[in-house]
């Protein structure tokens, strides 16, 4: 998951509607009542049957998953309370808490201070109550528990790995059962009992190269996911995966089809297709929905990614499409349209070449659209990012594709009133 502090590179609900029937005649009323009772009974039975099915077989339709980063509580000053005050909590079905580490073949704590030690004052707390010095659980975990009390249907998964910490999965894959045992014990630790509803695996990338290169073989990923599914019985198991749909690319390096039976859904990272790691350009949108004339690389767009995964045998309702709540940009660009040359990455608040949407929308507003996303040329800078308009259109496309929902990286990039998340359909 590409975030300003921990870069991820590709290469590198609606509620049901209640029907109310009004009887006009006594006889009709009786008939309708009888039919309603039968229908309700059948519906309840169907719901029971759905709940009794293994988690991996349930459809992901209508999911809106947002990543919350534990390091966001530092420079970004973004806390769990912001998820509530922005209105984001009302839109979210799931939060992926990023990241836990992978060390010695086991799941491990990522940042203990941010996760469960940091004390919150009353004005910083979700419920307006300050932490005390002697309470057993503080930090983000305690705040997330408070958020779940306000939103009982909200599910939270602990995401492990990410760009920085994916190097540990190779060791974990040597003994998947031991890895799954360690993860289960940590996710369901008594100290934060009731917080997490499952686990999300962010391995960048199985049998391929990310920050480091993995040579565990094409079967390592499905073996790992099977072990997690066996252990996390009744809880959610998901995985963020590559979006590289090029010939011979990362999606072909591991057996994602076999692993699909063990996950509730996949989160293919359909962003960061292009960026200022190619310092001289050509400029290109980092999250194109479709291909376009002049795109720098075939297979690097959302439509190609989803099509390839479906062709590999992954059901559409187990695929969420990804959105970036940030832009990627170049400096030294004179051409307004995509395809221009550059001198390097554009300046960013936390990292060169990347900036939050909430900053870019005013600093460098859109000047055009291409391939279902927006771009902006201001001065000698060129940026691309999604807007409420393009996010809404991507949602229409996803519905036509029968996808299970959407996810985004990450919550702190949105405006204080949740401008982007409220555009998600």
TrEMBL record:
Q: InterPro entries under this entry?
A: Chitinase_II/V-like_cat, Chitinase_insertion_sf, GH, Glyco_hydro18_cat, Glyco_hydro_18_chit_AS, Glycosyl_Hydrlase_18, TAT_signal
One GO biological process from the UniProt record?
carbohydrate metabolic process
List, in alphabetical order, the Gene Ontology terms for molecular function in this entry: chitin binding; endochitinase activity
Look up keyword Hydrolase and say if it applies. Answer: yes
Q: List, for all copies, the residue spans of the domain called GH18.
A: 62-425
Enzyme Commission number(s): 3.2.1.14
Q: Any idea which UniProt keywords this protein has? A: Carbohydrate metabolism, Chitin degradation, Glycosidase, Hydrolase, Polysaccharide degradation, Signal
What protein is this chain from? chitinase
